């Protein structure tokens, strides 16, 4: 059966109704899921198996039957581990129906159908009794309900219900406990992901400074954690102000409460500095003694940085304090962690005497300035990048004239302010949403520009001459940045906007950027290949059916799609030279015909061809370009350096044999890439050649 799905096209800006297979949504969920990453996480799987064996042994030593409840079973892997370890029966709960159906097949293929019952329900809907889903309560509780923040996938409500309704009092639990750790740091780089720094502009007669509005200065920020691969952050990027401290633990073998709670730890500053950021992670003990531990600790905390297990489903957390606070070496401060059902946040209290009980009144941080609603964390970093701003200033100085009528098209961009301070006669900015309109108004007000720059809240095609005070635009500018963009070419919406505005432009209009180009390079990933790599067998269990399910979902459309990844977090090496593939000329309107290029890219270095990376470059002037991708082909470690402000597009080459591509040692890759102006999509196809 086919269904019509409405969605906004991020490149063209149009709302489209597309006919999709009724299974489209779940294919998308499976294709972009972490299942392969988890199955390839050997450390996680081995520790779970050890913990499950130990839990079953403890129950058997008491002379009891081992009855297991496995919540969030996924493939059924942990239940099969329990059955292998000697469990008498396992109830495996999985709410996602396609996954539950697959688990049934995997359990059957591995010969455990008589020991494992798959229950396709949310665990809070599972019933116990003669006519229920479970004949009796379980005495072993196994779960994998964790995300990077530990509780973000609803672990607390699920545990609370399980202890109340589904497991025996005093049950064994795998994992047995989780412990959350934190470290207070100063980091200009990380703080730049949360606040807008002053921007200095050297105009002809004086220096101008763009300041952020008071609402932004005092805003606690976005409520969500920023989860990243902290192992890719250099020690030069932060200064620890405290030792690592234990914030709180959760014992999963005892009743768990979903109620909001807080935990205060008093610590002594080991160095003077600005307390800005809390870095946090957790570990899980698979047994009561804590002898089987799975840790997310970053490299500087671990005893050896060699062979730290790589995983993408669990990373580390960056929390921004509501305000930066100066702490002095030796000073006692209180760090409080709060949590509700699904999230954690932090507050710093200076001095031991402050009444920590007042902290319980603090609610989860909510953005009040609107900047954190419009700009994500990398976007803050991008706006704070002084070198990037300098390139735009240099380019604007080349094209601006005293009589320039300037129109800016980007979401919440500071280019209109730059243009005004550099001497543009008139400046307009087109904001497509009420949020970006409101935010820009606050920024203009804070810089006394409310009567200098006119905000137009309209989509480009709806603009009329009176919006521009009956003037023609002689300088059209954009970064471009649009908050709806996911893949690098989605910001080509600027081109569609420029096309819609053609009647409002002078015949000799200057467009900045003047053009854009799509670039590509073939790479070998250090680890990221694992998220799309078939597993085959996992801890001795056959999970080929899962591999096939993921492959079918990836191949659900006629052609595979590229996916966005912030490659500064995922080391890779180039095995080809970078190549310019497509060019987009913004002096012209969007053409009706497809823009296409095909050819062969030679592999100049040895390595595994895991995939192609694609990114955009925007050419502001003939001599000034901004990259959204590659910064340096090889750094001191031999890895590519990528801009940290944008996600790059990754097209993984199809693989049926683990990390090896279909051809063991390809010498070249044939490619076909085309940009369809009607849809705004980049269609790509690759073939590895001997």
Structural overview:
The chain is α+β, with helices and mostly antiparallel strands. Strands 8, 11, 12, 13, 15, 16 and 17 form a seven-stranded antiparallel sheet that branches. Strands 25, 28, 29, 30, 32, 33 and 36 form a seven-stranded antiparallel sheet that branches. Helix 5 (about 95-110) links the parallel strand 4 (about 90-95) and strand 5. Helix 1 packs across helix 15, helix 3 (about 40-60) packs across helix 4 (about 75-85) and helix 5 runs antiparallel to helix 15. It starts with a strand and ends with a strand.
> Overall 3D geometry?
globular
How would you characterize the largest beta sheet?
A: 7 strands, antiparallel
- The whole-number mean of residue pLDDT values reads 92
Q: What's the alpha carbon Rg, rounded to whole Å? A: 28 Å
Low-confidence stretches: 656-661
The helicity comes to 10-25%
Q: What's the number of helices?
A: 15
Strand content: 25-35%
């Amino acid at each position: 059966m086919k269904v019509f799905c409405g969605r906004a096209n991020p490149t063209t800006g149009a709302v489209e109704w597309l006919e999709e297979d009724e299974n489209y949504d779940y294919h998308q969920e499976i294709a972009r899921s972490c299942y392969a990453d988890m199955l390839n996480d050997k450390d996680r799987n081995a520790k779970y198996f050890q913990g499950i064996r130990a839990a079953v042994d403890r129950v058997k030593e008491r002379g009891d039957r081992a009855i297991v409840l496995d919540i969030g079973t996924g493939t059924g892997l942990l239940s099969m581990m329990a059955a292998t370890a000697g469990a008498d029966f396992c109830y495996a709960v999985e709410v996602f129906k396609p996954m539950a159906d697959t688990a049934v097949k995997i359990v059957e293929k591995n010969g455990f159908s008589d020991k494992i019952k798959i229950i396709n329900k949310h665990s809070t809907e599972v019933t116990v009794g003669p006519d229920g889903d479970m004949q009796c309560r379980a005495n072993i509780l196994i779960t994998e309900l964790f995300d990077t923040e530990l509780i973000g996938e609803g672990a607390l409500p699920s545990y609370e219900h399980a202890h109340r309704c589904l497991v025996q009092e005093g049950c064994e639990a795998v994992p047995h406990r989780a412990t959350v750790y934190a470290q207070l740091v100063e980091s200009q780089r990380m703080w730049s992901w949360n606040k807008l720094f002053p921007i200095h502009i050297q105009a002809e007669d004086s220096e101008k400074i763009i300041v952020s509005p008071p609402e932004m200065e005092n805003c606690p920020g976005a409520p969500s954690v920023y989860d990243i691969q902290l192992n890719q952050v250099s020690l030069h990027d932060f200064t620890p102000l405290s030792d690592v401290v234990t914030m709180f633990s959760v014992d999963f073998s005892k009743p768990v409460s979903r109620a909001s709670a807080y935990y205060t730890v008093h610590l002594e500053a080991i160095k003077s500095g600005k307390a800005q950021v809390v870095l946090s992670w957790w570990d899980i003990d698979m047994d009561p003694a804590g002898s089987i531990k799975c840790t997310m600790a970053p490299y500087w905390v671990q005893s050896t940085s060699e062979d730290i297990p790589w995983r993408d489903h669990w990373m580390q957390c960056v929390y921004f304090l509501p305000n930066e606070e100066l702490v002095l070496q030796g000073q006692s401060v209180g760090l409080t962690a709060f949590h509700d059902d699904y999230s954690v946040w932090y507050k710093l209290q200076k001095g031991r005497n402050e009444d920590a009980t007042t902290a319980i009144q603090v609610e989860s941080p909510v953005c009040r300035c609107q900047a954190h609603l419009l700009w994500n964390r990398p976007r803050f970093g991008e706006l704070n990048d002084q070198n990037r701003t300098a390139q735009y200033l240099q380019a604007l100085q080349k094209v601006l004239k005293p009589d320039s009528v300037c129109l800016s098209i980007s979401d919440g961009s500071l280019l209109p302010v730059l243009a005004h301070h550099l001497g543009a006669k008139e400046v307009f900015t087109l904001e497509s949403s009420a949020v970006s309109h409101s935010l820009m108004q606050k920024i203009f007000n804070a810089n006394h520009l409310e009567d200098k720059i006119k905000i137009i809240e309209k989509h480009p095609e709806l603009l009329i001459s009176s919006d521009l005070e009956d003037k023609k635009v002689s300088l059209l500018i954009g970064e471009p940045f649009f908050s709806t963009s996911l893949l690098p070419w989605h910001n080509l919406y600027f081109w569609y906007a420029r096309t819609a505005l053609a009647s409002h432009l002078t015949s000799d209009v200057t467009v900045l950027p003047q053009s854009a180009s799509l670039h590509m390079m073939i790479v070998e990933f250090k680890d990221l290949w694992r998220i799309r790599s078939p597993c085959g067998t996992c801890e001795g269990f056959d999970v080929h059916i899962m591999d096939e399910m993921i492959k079918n979902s990836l191949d659900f459309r006629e052609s595979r799609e590229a996916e966005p990844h912030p490659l500064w977090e995922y080391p890779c090496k180039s095995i080809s030279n970078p190549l310019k593939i497509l060019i987009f000329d913004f002096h012209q309107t969007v053409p009706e015909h497809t823009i296409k290029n095909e050819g062969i890219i030679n592999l100049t270095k040895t390595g595994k061809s895991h995939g192609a990376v694609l990114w955009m470059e925007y050419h502001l002037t003939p001599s000034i370009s901004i990259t959204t991708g590659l910064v340096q082909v090889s750094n001191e470690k031999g890895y590519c350096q990528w801009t940290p402000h944008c996600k790059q597009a990754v097209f993984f080459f199809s693989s049926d044999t683990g990390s090896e591509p279909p051809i063991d040692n390809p010498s070249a890759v044939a490619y076909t890439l085309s940009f369809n102006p009607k849809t705004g999509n980049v269609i790509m196809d690759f073939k590895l050649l001997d």
